[in-house]
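Same chain as my last thread, 258 residues:
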Amino acid sequence: MELFDSHAHLDDEKFGQDRQQVIQKMKETGVTKIISAGYSLEASKKAIELAKQYDFIYATCGISPNDIPQTEEELWIMLNEIEFIAKNNKKVVAIGEIGLDYHWNKENKCLQKLAFKEQIKIANKLNLPIVIHTREAVMDTIQILNENQVALKGVFHCCPLNRELVKEALKLEFYISFAGPVTFKNSKNAEEIICMVPNEKILIETDSPYLSPEPLRGKRNDPSNVKYIAQKIASVKQMDIEQIAKITYQNAEKIFNI
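reply #2:
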């Protein structure tokens, strides 16, 4: 059984002491492809460097809503750099993570929206999909996507378990990526949301080192734990985990053109 972790942060400092061992453990547990996701200019560059070292690691680059600079002038400098590094590195498979986050940041909504729209333009220009981060910003996220066509679509990463968001995302032909929260015991509507998503639109991810799935909550997450998300989906859909692994693997290869 082979697994594809479609979103992790292998460049994170929490892997600073044992990154190579984590990558080795990942391969030993059947995770044979992974997307190392950028979220800031620095993290994007690190993700690309890591992808260059390993043929089974790919990268995304983008400015997340939680890494927006304080001024529009600084933002434009960052966006130009993101476009440059994405254009000049073959291991970059998407622009992301990008989007809106009104949980942590309510004071810079206009800059968040500008960054989101401009990075959609970059993705379209470079013929890449996008990876979306959205939190407590459902309506604005969907409105921007409806008003700014994304040529190659993309993924709602660690998708919030919100019925309306998932419904609208699927209408727009986006993929839905599930992470650790779907395994949490207090996740009330996880099973309903999983059932809403057709098999051809499901991805799995760890978002490691964050959001460790049950039964590992509270510990550092790593890509080898993506099997727990696959197992949860398999259980809900009454399928074998091997089937879910194969489906999500093929879906990830398709959306990221790998």
